[in-house]
């Protein structure tokens, strides 16, 4: 498979923040503080109906397997459920957990061996949304002004991060994403997530809502 790397003009829109909609913001704040990502996400109360797979995951890219293990252990100790135990794979080493508020988190590294001590730091925070048509949704976001950094045909696309926020946006086929996370693909109702952007308010083809960042 050939990976295409595409450069466009400066983005009119970029991902500035991610807000998780949770039933209990105080409890969620406690979890994300213990997990180590509280400074990088926002929380707000919501009782919007959501069942099954919510169509996205948040992923931490870290330096090595021991750091993956550390984040997974911290999440479990704070109340998360393990969906996929941390293990080696073709691409490296990763584990998947579900936070008490229902958000799925993947912690991964491309390294299969540790080259240094474990830390509680991560290199990237990626919002990976599952879409029905990667090419069409990629073009939608290009039209909104996002810059494509990587594209693997109709299977995966990644956008260059903006300067105003810590989170990178990427697209993956919804069915493939659910399989990777170890959950059934079916899901209905709210995604329970809002994306803060540097542009105006809109909703993408798969129902993910963007709001003007504060």
What report would you give on this structure?
By secondary structure, this protein is an alpha/beta fold. The chain is 20% helix and 38% strand. It has an eight-stranded mixed β-sheet with strand order 5-6-7-4-8-11-10-9. The protein has a five-stranded mixed β-sheet with strand order 2-1-13-15-14. The termini are far apart. Mean pLDDT is 91; it is low at 1-11.
Key traits:
214 residues; alpha/beta; eight-stranded mixed sheet; five-stranded mixed sheet; 4 helices; 20% helix; globular; disordered N terminus
Mean pLDDT: 91
Give the count of helical stretches. 4
Radius of gyration: 16 Å
Shape: globular
According to DSSP, the number of beta strands is 15
Major sheet description: 8 strands, mixed
Q: Going across the biggest sheet, name each strand in turn.
A: 5-6-7-4-8-11-10-9
User: What order do the SSEs take from the amino end to the carboxyl end, as H and E?
Assistant: EHEEEHEEEEHEEEHEEEE
Beta-strand share of residues: 35-45%
Q: What fraction, in percent, of the residue positions are helical?
A: 10-25%
| End-to-end separation | 40 Å
The chain-level structural class is: alpha/beta
Uncertain residue segments: 1-11
């Amino acid at each position: 498979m050939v990976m295409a790397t595409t450069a466009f003009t400066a983005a009119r829109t970029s991902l500035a923040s991610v807000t998780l909609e949770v039933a209990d913001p105080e409890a969620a704040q406690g979890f994300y503080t213990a997990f180590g990502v509280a400074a990088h996400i926002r929380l707000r109360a919501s009782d919007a109906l959501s069942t099954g797979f919510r169509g996205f995951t948040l992923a931490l890219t870290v330096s090595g397997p021991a750091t993956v293990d550390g984040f997974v252990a911290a999440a479990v100790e704070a109340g998360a459920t393990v969906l996929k135990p941390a293990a080696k794979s073709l691409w490296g080493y990763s584990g998947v957990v579900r936070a008490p508020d229902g958000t799925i988190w993947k912690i991964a590294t491309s390294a299969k061996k540790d080259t240094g001590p474990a830390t509680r730091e991560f290199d990237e925070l990626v919002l990976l949304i599952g879409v029905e048509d990667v090419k069409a949704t990629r073009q939608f976001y290009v039209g909104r002004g996002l810059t494509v950094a990587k594209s693997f045909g109709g299977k995966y696309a990644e956008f260059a991060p903006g300067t105003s926020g810590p989170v990178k946006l990427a697209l993956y086929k919804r069915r493939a994403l659910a399989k990777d996370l170890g959950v059934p693909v079916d899901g209905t109702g709210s995604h329970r997530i809002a994306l803060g952007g540097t542009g105006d308010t809109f909703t993408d083809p798969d129902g993910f809502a963007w709001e003007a960042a504060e």
